[in-house]
TrEMBL record:
Protein EC: 2.1.3.3
A Pfam family matched in the record: OTCace
Protein's name in the database: Ornithine carbamoyltransferase
Record organism: Leptospira ilyithenensis
GO biological process: citrulline biosynthetic process; L-arginine biosynthetic process via ornithine
Amino acid sequence: MSTLTHLISWKDWSDDQIAELIDFAVYVKQNRVFFSGHMAGRSMAMLFQKTSTRTRVSFEAGMTELGGHAIFLDWMSSNFLLSDIDFEAEYLSRNVSIIMARLKRNEDLLILQSGSKVPVINGCCNLFHPCQALADILTIVMDRPKDWKKTKICYIGVHNNVVNSLVGITAALGIHLTLVTPIASPDSIVPEVIERGKSKGTISWEKDLKTAVRDADYVYTDTWVDMEFFNDPKFQKEKEERIELMMPYQINSELLKHTKAKVMHDMPIHAGYEITREVVLNERSIIFTQAENRLDAQKAVVLKLLEKA
Ligand code: CP
């Protein structure tokens, strides 16, 4: 991997660089002990403008396993709230080796990147969630090591940041992704990303759910309402409208009768909405393994970005 210094989106990574990172993530997972100590004496700043369980825990535990340290910064109780983002980012980068940030707006993340003198990792913004997509593909590679490149994924839900990152990573790796996405989160469609999928012939859209899942190896869903709006009273009307529109697209036991696919979800789960509790706990669900793989994926990203730093 030559000149890469950040992971904001797969847009910025070539097919070869992404393939190399996947191979490396598998290696990191299979050789967990080997990398202990690789981040000794180094710190990561983890800045959160939104809530998180997996992203925070996997990066923090990952840094600990690598022998480094992670500093949690809550946007609301830091001076990112008061000052220019690039100034605060430059300050941070004079103290830590790497920054992971979960910001609401991609524009703000790019400003943070411009101020930082160290690698910046996108921990999920309105447009992209690359670390999630990396863990998703790592999960599939570990699940089907011999033929993962022939895998067919069917994503059912709202077109959102997770979808954009799935489109980017599957296009780079030649994995087919069928989208059943009756609606999109506001301004979430990134034409450049869709073009990459189209040019590789790895993306298609399907309206009929049973047709979409028939040949799928994995069915994947995500929340219908973005995390920062889920419990926001101002968003309740839109939330109710989305639920009514999306309910026919729920992943439930009836749908599983029409496919042999395994079930994926990036979590947090809203059981009873995009997926039923029964399916989450079904033997075909690999959701908790997928979430566990965030740890190895995060470690691989940190190690790669700091390889030459
Ligand atoms: N999937 C994911 O990013 O989980 P968190 O929002 O809990 O970090």
